[in-house]
Each structure stands twice: as structure tokens, then as C-alpha cells.
């Protein structure tokens, strides 16, 4: 029994969804029900999709629709005859149940789970159960190592003709902390390899890949990524396009709406991507602050120990760096606004955000300290010289051109300034609510959306002086963000001026 393919034009993020009328011959004969997992075959290709049952007549009895994600994966023209069947039970079903009930899994079991996840044999609701079962303190060190090894084993792994291969990663949670493009430019300008794969936003208003995409293409395949690195020494590409850790991309898809990622998942995610990209030495930045992802020094120390232990088991050299996470870094929060900050730092502009500049120099210096220079200068001294001489900017533009061409970030047409209601001193800035505000304004979906923050902790401000400027692509999104800001006006908290 067959139905004709119809493109529904429905965005279901990355989940493949198939739509059928409840009374169509396939639904009735096969006994398919809402949320059933179904094999869809057509045009010589095969995918597994989740069924949504249609009760109205907006889809005909002889048609089946696919969401945009399913349409891309099946890659068949509209009108193609499709066949449907029940999928075989996922090989890892027993492993998933075992993890949910608190049992310890080995590398082989994790590999089965992850291969089924990549192949689409597990529904998002099952993946959500897996992510939740791995959260908190449910994974010990050996199991965390097993999960990380499995994530490496089910993806590609790059090798480079020379070592060391350097990298830097921040665990996130700090708005505007876009140091990676600056660090990559400095380290590549110093003549070292730094093949950087980055994520899109999970719970933040922008990931490094989102910001970089406003400056140059980031969806490069493995061959293209290799060409860029061989030509320029470094790259900044979206990890999801190169497939180095495809299981991580699937898990991120589930973590995003859940709005959390556990230490175990974070460790496996970060380190699997570093090893897969061929890195040998990595600086790991952990911002610590009351509204950052890492809330306390004790939590940071625990996470640092876990990252170091798993890295050591994988043969990876890491330097754990604890940084100040009490407030945003730079002025922009959102892809294009963060990109503008990056460009100002690289260009040594007079109005470049100095906190972003100094933080990037510190991290670049620590990366360069992995490979001491012959002239006796510290990594920090070499990093500063490369930035101030313009070498880092030239290398960054060269990397952008090698990835497909440099472009200027766009600007949002709608803006609102939020001013200080009274004289005072900036006593606190809520990173989590600030991120939420930027997302409500449209970031990262609308690259130019987000916000600018005009003040820093302990800064004196007068009544009427700007604290924040919201940027939005549409007036509706701006109104939505303004409403949230009106309800949470203490995102930037003012104390009494002394």
C-alpha cells in the first residue's frame, strides 16, 4: 500500500515527522497510531519518522506529508510514491531501559544506543529519557569515560600531519562570551594548528557557530574543513556539518527544549568533539558566577576534576581555567551583535569591549603556553603582540575567505533602549534572565536580534542613562521582549550610590 509524498512546510526542528489522515488505507491497515515510529521509503531512500495523525481534511486520503526535517532526509520529489512499514525494535531498547532503571552501561551498550539515535531508530521522547537518566550524579567516572569513548567511536575522527593540535572550549552559560574567533585567529597567526568545531546555541542566545555564521559560512564538510585548516592553520565551523560527533548533535537536539545539560553529558560532548577533531591540547574555560552555568567554585572544581580525569583517559592534555562568570562579556548578546564585538577586538578599535579583549588574550596565551616559543616570551605576550600587530585580524579574514567568504553582520531594524530609573551603582546582572531576554527578542533564530548591555558591575549610572538596548527583527518580537523586561526590570540591579 502506497501514498503520495506531500511537503508540509512544517518546521519540527530536526525531528522527522510524517502526517497521515486517520482514515487513510495505510493508517487503518497497518494499525498506525499517533506517535508511532514508521519506516518511510521512497526514491531509493529510507527514513524513520514519528507519525502525527490528521483528523481534518487538509491532507487527502492518498497522501502522506513530511515535515521539513523528514523532507530533507528522504530527499524525494513531491508526488513520489511512498511505502510504509513498522520498524524493527531498536537493538538498544534493552540498554535504554537498563539506563533508565539506574544500571551501569559499558562502551558497547552506549555505542548501540548512539548508533540507533543517529539512525533515527529512537524517538525524541526516548532520547529525552536517556538524557534525563544520565543527568545529575547518575554516571560514575568509568561510565562517563565509556560514554565519551562511544561518542567518539560512532563518528568520524580527524588526524593531522603535525602536532600539537591546539583547541579551546568554554562550557558556556555566560552571555556574549565570544572569545573563540579571537583565540583561533591568534593561535593560527602564531603558526599552530587549531581546527575548531563549534556548536549552535543549546540554551543560549548564540553559539559560536551562530555568531561565526554571520561572518562566514560554517556548514563545511570534512574535506572542506581539512582544506581550510591545511591552508590557514585554523577554522571555525559548525560541528554538526562535519559529522565528527553526530551522536552529540542528536543529544543536543533533545537537550535544547529541555533547557539543561548535565556534567556527564557536557563532559562527553566537549571531549568527544575535541578528540574527534584531532586535538591534542585543549584549554577548557569554566566561567563561575551565581547566574552562570557553573554557580560556585566547588561546582567548578568538581566539573574540572571530571573533565581532567576523562581527558586523561582519552590521552588528551587539558588546562582547566576558571574565569569570572558574574556578568556578560562584551556588549552584544546575539549572533550579529557578538560578531561586531569580535571584529572590533580584532581590529584594535578604540571602542572595542576591553573585557572581551583581555579575556580572549588570556585564553589565547594559555593555549600558546602549550608550545613555548624559542624567544622566551610567555604565551600571553605572544598573543598580545599578534593581536596588536594586526596579524590576528589578517588571519581571521583569511580563514573567513577560505571558508567561503567574509561578510559583514546584519543589523536589526527595531530597537528599544531601557534606561536606569534612578541614580545608582550596578550591583548585579542576571546572566540567565539576560539570555532569556535576548532569546525573546529573536536570537539566535534571527541573527541580528538580541541586546546590547551598556554597563558593567560596580559602574555608577545616572537616572535616564541606558542600561540595555534591545534589537529585534520584527516589532512583535520587540514587544514580547519589552514585556518580559518590564516584568524583570532587575535583570540589571542597581544599588544605592554611595
From TrEMBL:
Organism the protein comes from: Tahibacter amnicola
Name under which the protein is recorded: Putative thymidine phosphorylase
UniProt superkingdom: Bacteria
Keyword Transferase: yes
Lineage of the organism: Bacteria, Pseudomonadati, Pseudomonadota, Gammaproteobacteria, Lysobacterales
Catalytic activity: thymidine + phosphate = 2-deoxy-alpha-D-ribose 1-phosphate + thymine
Keyword annotations from UniProtKB, A to Z: Glycosyltransferase, Transferase
Family: Belongs to the thymidine/pyrimidine-nucleoside phosphorylase family. Type 2 subfamily.
Pfam families from the UniProt entry: Glycos_trans_3N, Glycos_transf_3, PYNP_C
Pyrimidine nucleoside phosphorylase C-terminal domain boundaries: 425-492
The EC number(s) this enzyme carries: 2.4.2.4
Keyword Hydrolase recorded: no
